[in-house]
Design brief:
The structure is a single chain. The protein has helices at 13-34, 50-56, 162-177; strands at 42-43, 48-49, 62-67, 78-87, 97-106, 124-126, 129-132, 135-139, 149-155. By secondary structure, the protein is an alpha+beta fold. A seven-stranded antiparallel β-sheet has the order 3-4-5-9-8-7-6. Strands 1-2 form a two-stranded antiparallel sheet. Helix 2 (50-56) packs antiparallel against helix 3 (162-177). The protein is elongated, with a radius of gyration of 24 Å.
C-alpha cells in the first residue's frame, strides 16, 4: 500500500498580507498606548527624564505628564509643579499610577509641620533630604535659594522604591537648578 504525500494548505496572498498588516497595526497600537517606546524622554517641561520615572512607576503603561495643581502659582514659593501618570489601556490588572513632583521654597521645618509628611519616626533622613513610604524630598544648596529652604519633593504610590525616588529627585534638582558635582551655585 502506498501513501500519497500530503499537500500543505496554501493561504491566499491577500489573506496573509491582511493578517500581517492587522498584527502589525495591533502591535503598534499596543506599543503606543501601553509603553513609552514612542514616548518623550523628557517630561515636565524638560526637567524630569523618563528613565528614572519608569523605575519609580513600575508596571505597564504609557507615561504622560500634565501641570500640577500649583503650576503657575504666583505664591513666591513654587518653582515648578508637575503630575506624571502611568496608565495602560485594555491591560487587565494594570492600575493608573501617579507621581507628583514639585519644586518649592519652604520653612526649614516643613517636614515636621503642616501635615504633608508622616510622623518623623516613619521618615528616613539623609544629608540633604528624607524619604518615607511613597514620598521623598531633597534639599537644594543654600546658594540656590533666598530666605527659605529650596527643595524638590515628590509623592508617589506607597509601593515606590524610596532610593529610586530620591535618585529621580536628585536628577530633577540637577536639571532644574543647573547643579552638578563641584558647582557652587544655581
Amino acid at each position: 500500500m502506498t501513501t500519497t504525500p500530503q499537500r500543505a494548505a496554501k493561504f491566499p496572498r491577500k489573506t496573509l498580507a491582511a493578517a500581517v498588516t492587522a498584527v502589525a497595526a495591533l502591535g503598534g497600537l499596543h506599543l503606543w498606548l501601553n509603553t513609552n517606546a514612542f514616548g518623550e524622554s523628557a517630561l515636565c517641561g524638560g526637567v524630569v527624564t523618563a528613565e528614572p520615572v519608569e523605575a519609580v512607576l513600575t508596571g505597564a503603561g504609557r507615561i504622560s505628564d500634565r501641570p500640577g495643581p500649583r503650576s503657575g502659582a504666583d505664591d513666591g514659593k513654587t518653582q515648578f509643579d508637575c503630575v506624571i501618570e502611568r496608565k495602560a489601556v485594555a491591560l487587565p490588572g494594570s492600575d493608573k499610577q501617579t507621581l507628583h513632583i514639585q519644586g518649592t521654597s519652604e520653612r526649614g521645618d516643613f517636614a515636621f509641620t503642616g501635615g504633608r509628611w508622616p510622623d518623623a519616626s516613619a521618615v528616613s533622613f539623609f544629608p540633604g533630604g528624607g524619604a518615607a513610604s511613597g514620598r521623598a524630598w531633597v534639599l537644594l544648596p543654600a546658594a540656590c535659594t533666598d530666605r527659605q529652604a529650596g527643595l524638590i519633593e515628590a509623592y508617589a504610590p506607597d509601593s515606590a522604591d524610596a532610593a529610586k525616588l530620591v535618585g529621580l529627585l536628585t536628577g530633577t534638582a540637577t536639571e532644574v537648578f543647573g547643579l552638578s558635582s563641584g558647582s557652587e551655585g544655581s
